[in-house]
Amino acid sequence: MTTADEAPAPTPEHPTPGLAGSAIPDSPGRELRQARQARKLDVSHVATALRLTPQVVEAIERDDYAPLPSATFVSGYIRSYARLVGLDPEPLNQSFRRLHPNAEPPPRHFARSEQNGEQTDGGGLAGALVLALIVLAAAAGGYAWWTLRSGPDEPAQQAATPDPSAPPSFSASDPQRELAPAPGMDRDTEARSPSDRAPSVVNEPPTEADSETGSEPTLGTSPDVRMAEPGAEPPTSATDPIPEVADSPALESTPADSTVESPSAPLPTPPSPEVERPASSATQTPADDEEEAVSAPADSSATAIELGFTGPCWVDIRDATGEVLLFGEMSRGDRETLAGEPPYSLVIGNAAAVELTVGGAPYDLRSVARGNVARFELDPAEISSRTPDATD
Amino acid sequence: MFLRRIRGLFSNDLSIDLGTANTLIYTRGQGIVLDEPSVVAIRHEHDGGRKSVAAVGEEAKLMLGRTPQNITAIRPLKDGVIADFTVTEKMLQYFIHKVHESRLIRPSPRVLVGVPSGSTQVERRAIKESAAGAGAREVYLIEEPMAAAIGAGLPVDEPQGSMVLDIGGGTSEVAVISLNGIVFSNSARIGGDTFDDSIINYVRRNYGTFIGEATAERIKHRIGAAFPGNEMLEIEVRGRNLAEGMPRSFTLNSNEILEALQEPLHSIVSAVKNALEQTPPELGADVAERGIVLTGGGALLRDLDRLIAEETGLPVVVAEDPLTCVARGGGKALEMIDQRGLDLFSSE
């Protein structure tokens, strides 16, 4: 079965015990030559068995790898030679790799277990990056939340807190929503109907006021509004708002002009007896609303509810249908007239900075305010029927 | 797409040897990080007939032939190509995740997959799409003999012929390579699995006993040989006697296994001879001078190099760590993408 000159081939399970040195030999060629001579084989015999030329075998025995092909082949030759002469090929191969400059290190098999430390290092780096990203995202999110929240929260600085149960409604489809214009804007924003100021109503037809102001105040600008406040001109509460709103068709014929000059009216004074329910203009389109305000000022004047602001104040006012009439932060000098379905539901963050008149008569906010925040229902018709008792 | 690039920053480039028997993954800078059998165990849920993956890799291989009714352990690759597309995708997904298991972000690596040189366009596309479906950002294909030659350390970029014989689980590939290209290649659908089948058939024919694939593989590893040695090895195995229907134990020796393996070995030798005949004479001379390099798991069959040396009269050397040559070569090729472009890679 085997040729007589061949030594038993050592297998991984059964390496030849005697000749297989555990120490790595200095010169694989010398080891091989000694083993060959011990078996009384000549070079040509080995060359024939390995299908190599005698020159190649001699070069291997001299450890002269220059005339030999690449390390892969030489390593294979040495292994075959070692098996032929009954040596353990592995130590010889290791010493060959030391001698051969271009020999690759033996491949690292199952490197995963060996490299666990390195792996966790790499993972740690990636983990740190991921962590940094998460922290950044959280910080950005927190900042965005704070900016969005702090707009409505601003009156809290004046010891007033808005109703947390009234979440800011950013619905752009609400044409009745009003927003506080920036302080600098109300200079040229002459009495506009609420619909004019409805922010981000995309389909709203442009009005004169639009072209004057250039840009509509939006919720997003509320921080800017807040920042602009300190620099805003400090007008006197009694005189300032009136000239600005003088052109307002809704206000023209109301007696409010005279009454707002007494901002600290202690008690609800009787409104004019001809109080009527205001025309329900809430259901009308914004464009109609504006025309209505011009054409029927007298109608709504009897029960008109006006808000004059003497300082920054956060308000949320809805009418009976739940529609938002006024929402957001108002600033000093603003005046607003409510048009909607009574009774109204009001939340006024800074009651001390608001002068409320119903049908021209001042309404005492302090009677309904808790702390400085007023949360109450207001029905002009009810007040008009109640005021006779109050006067009694 | 952008997200994939971001995830790619947290993923390693992988070279995958998607073999019939074993799947190996090589990561740049880390070496072979995964070596598991290409086996998936599928569980069939009782309600609604849904299927889920019960186990993959080593764990699933232990289940082969030992599963209850609701679990099927399958090998999704056959003859080096995909036999079950969905299961292959699941398996690749599992392996890619396993390699990146310490990462928080879902990996999206660049992947290089070896394909048999004899595979068809459809088979290559299946492999490519399967890898893409498993989460790869980009998929490159490389012909296995080329990857094996690079992994074995052959001078593929020189104007010299190098012959490599890669014996995998499902296919054997022989190729002559010069100047980064395959001059000639021949693929035979014979590999480690064929050896196992031959042993099963031999035992059934001569002992009237039926043994399983796992047992056949164990026999091959322990006492399998391609060339008669002067050492007789023996192994005791158990199988079901066909006549009695009872499990019986008996002893096999290495000469019997050598006899059993004659047919597939002959086919491999024929493929090598055929390749040598077809090789241009200059390159043939280079091969004759330096020899044939054996890679793949089949190269570990005892004395296979001697058999081929005897049959061809050429020197034959077994590559260092032949099992991982394709994966390592693919890894080196991935590292060369930036330098050499894509000329090493095969198109679909």
- What is the average of the pLDDT values of chain A? 62
Give unreliable regions of chain A as ranges: 1-22, 108-124, 153-298, 388-392
Q: Which protein chains make the most extensive interface, counting residues with beta carbons within 8 Å of the other chain's beta carbons?
A: A-B, 37 and 39 residues
Number of helices of chain B: 13
Strand content of chain B: 25-35%
Specify the biggest β-sheet of chain A: 5 strands, antiparallel
Could you list the spans of chain B in which at least 5 consecutive residues all have pLDDT below 50? Answer: none
Q: What's the total count of β strands of chain A?
A: 9
Which bin fits the share of residues in helices of chain B? 25-40%
Number-wise, the strands of chain B total 18
Note down, in words, how this protein is organized.
The complex is a heterodimer of chains A (392) and B (348). Helices cover 39% and strands 11% of the residues of chain A. Chain A is of the alpha+beta class. In chain A, helix 2 (43-50) crosses helix 3 and helix 4 (71-84) packs antiparallel against helix 5 (89-99). The termini of chain A are far apart. Helix content of chain B is 39%, strand content 27%. In chain B, the strands form 5 sheets. In chain B, strands 3-2-1-9-10 form a 5-stranded mixed beta sheet, sandwiched between helices. Chain B is of the alpha+beta class and 348 residues long. Chain A binds chain B through residues 1-2, 6, 8-9, 11, 14, 50-52, 69-73, 75-77, 79-80, 104, 106-112, 115, 118-120, 123, 126-127, 129-130, and chain B through 10, 30-35, 102-105, 152-155, 228-231, 289-291, 293, 302-303, 305, 309, 313-321, 323-324, 328. Chain A: The chain crosses the membrane at residues 125-146. Chain A: This is Cytoskeleton protein RodZ-like C-terminal domain-containing protein. Chain A: Pfam families: HTH_25, RodZ_C. Chain A: Residues 155-174 have a biased composition (Low complexity).
